[in-house]
Each structure stands twice: as C-alpha cells, then as structure tokens.
Amino acid sequence: MERRWSQRVPFEADVTVYLQGIPVLSCKSRNIGPEGLLIDTEAGSLPAQRAVEVEISLDEPGQKKRLRIPAYVTRTETGVAMMFTASDPRTPAAIKELMRHSREELAG
Q1: 20: left (phi > 0), else alpha (psi -120 to 50), else beta?
Q2: Residues of the domain holding 93
C-alpha cells in the first residue's frame, strides 16, 4: 500500500546513488515528488532502510547541472523508492528545482 503524502510526476534523469560517500549505482529516475524519488533499477540493488545521497543530473541549456540530495531507501521491489531527508538546508530548494524541471519537461 502506498503511503505518500504528495503526488509524484514522471521524471527521467540520470541518477548516481552514493552510499557512505561512494558511488554505488548509476541509473535513471522514473518519477519524483516533493518527498521522494523512484529510480529504475533491479530489486535488491540497494539495501532498504539505508541513508544514501542521490545525485541527479539535469540537462540545462548549454550545461549539465548536478544536484545532490540526501535520501533514505524505503522500498526496493519494482525499482527503488527513496524518501528525501532534509538534513541539508539546501535540500528543499534543490527539490523545488527538480519539480520545476519536471513540469517544464511535461509541458514540452
């Protein structure tokens, strides 16, 4: 059963997952919302209930921008679901930027 507090929207971007500061997985995101992210990867590729950092690469005109956000792995069945954590004061602004980028991509 889903326990999200907010809606997620389709969002495809390159993602690198860091575990204890070491890059352990490169994949694509599937969707994003204010509280979390779903990445496309095989079940079991990351341990559940672990703190990680996700680095999301965005293609901006003329540049590639990377945003690194602390998160917590909540589910690892069909893809890996992560909940963003606000341990870094820059996290809310980074998430807002990702949501803006997602909406612009959907508007096309």
Answers
A1: left
A2: 9-102
Let me know if residue 57 belongs to a domain: yes
Mean pLDDT by 10 residues, the chain (108 residues): 66 94 95 90 84 90 87 89 82 78 73
Amino acid letter for position 84: F
pTM for the model stands at 0.82
Give the strand pairing for 14-19 and 36-40.
Answer: unpaired
Give how far the C-alpha of residue 54 lies from the chain's centroid of Cα atoms, to the nearest Å.
Answer: 6
| C-alpha 15 chain-centroid distance | 7
- Within a domain: residue 108? no
CB of 29 closer than 8 Å to CB of 15: yes
